[in-house]
Amino acid sequence: MSYAVPRRNWANSTVYDMYEHNISSSNLTTSGASTLYQSTFFFKTSDDRVYKVLDNNAGAAYSGAEPTSTASTPFELGGYTLKYMYTITASESTKFLTTDFMPVSTDTVVSAAATDGKIESLVITNAGSGYTNGTFYIPVYGDGTSQGTASGAIVSIVVSSGSIASFGLAAGTDSTVYEGGTGYTYGTINLGSGYTFSDAALTTASSMGSGSSGAVSVVISPKGGHGYDAVNELGGHYVMMRSSLTGAENDDILAGNDFRTISIVTDPTTYGTSTVATDSTYRQVYAIKLTSTSGTFSVDEKIHRQLQMLLVRLLSGIALFLFFIINRKDLQIMEQVLRQEHLLLSLVPMWLQAHLLLQLEHRMLLLTQQ
Predict the structure, then answer these.
(1) Helices and strands per DSSP (H, E), number in the chain
(2) pTM
């Protein structure tokens, strides 16, 4: 059994969504999704590595090589900022990887490196205009540890040609998260005078000038931090099951049979009690277990008390014949019925055939003389 998420394959020149904590009908993703788990914010590569998209370059198509990094820290490739999450093992791939779904699990190394409430990406909502060129350090206010101070989260905002540079990981060129901090469940950035500094220690105030319309927001990481719990982070709300019937299965399941319907039963109880069953297999029908057999049987052949069934049908035919004679019905129809039943005699032992036929002929003779 494995948790699973919708399968999304990596392909160059594809536009992917990015992770955001506040996706809604008023904050749609690049693809137009109104919820996180409807969006395409992660993908699987050809070598079964799974990555989360922390930034999608303002909705541009991925343009570059297929990622292979398994580093615990975010990295840039193809114009995107990515976070390695986990690798689908060979066993998981064989059992649970389908055209529509893929297994999801948490990488223990990645999980151990995650920080709860750490800010790892920004959204430049509006680059603005008319700002003073340069690099400005701004504390993140909110509910994080030491928020609003040099000991809390700090962002580095780069202004070029009067506008705020897009988010990235290249210090001095991109607007970056200088220090992610911890414990944030919400955070804000103030670009106004008195909130911006020229140094990371936040000791020297430095105004961004008389620009306007600029807006920057922080992206809050999921509980535990990115990669802490891949199952919940990627929306592993599906469960995939795979079971193989091998051997005799305690004589409860005939492993050699073909099965077309598989069902899941929650907390089945043992027969006649309210006790929840605990064994790995159970038989729900009566069965006959033979210690030995004689004769040759083919697969799916039905075994029944054939002789008695033949006698019943034969006697039914005699009764039908009597009905036809007594009621003076069409003897041609009766002849067809009798011929059909007579074929069954070939399966009856010779001595019994002779006895039954003599009895039948005697009864017919008496009836026709009436």
Answers:
(1) 6, 15
(2) 0.74
List the one residue out of 362, 360, 324 whose CA is nearest residue 345.
360
**75 bridge partner residues:** 82
- How far is residue 166's CA from residue 354's CA, in Å, rounded to a whole number? 101
10-residue mean pLDDT series, the chain (370 residues): 96 98 97 97 98 97 98 97 98 96 97 97 97 98 97 98 97 96 97 96 96 97 97 96 72 69 83 89 76 77 62 59 53 53 50 56 57
Nearest to 41 by CA among 55, 57, 52: 52
Q: Are 208 and 161 within one domain?
A: yes
Task: Give me the long-range contacts of 292-298 (CB less than 8 A, separation at least 24).
Answer: none
pLDDT at 367: 53
Q: Are 21 and 58 in contact (CB under 8 A)?
A: no
Q: Do both 265 and 324 map to the same domain?
A: no
9: DSSP letter: B
CB-count burial class (<10 Å; 0-12, 13-18, 19+) for 43: buried
Separation of CA 364 from chain center: 71
Q: Are residues 28 and 175 in the same domain?
A: no
Residues 166 and 66 in one domain: no
* Rounded distance between C-alpha atoms, residue 207 and residue 166, angstroms: 19
> Do 215 and 232 lie in a common domain?
no
Look up the domain containing 32 and give its range.
2-116+226-240
Q: What is the largest CA-CA distance in the chain?
A: 130
Amino acid present at 108: T
CB 277 within 8 A of CB 268: yes
DSSP tag of 65 = P
The answer to whether residues 82 and 51 touch, using CB atoms and an 8 Å cutoff, is yes
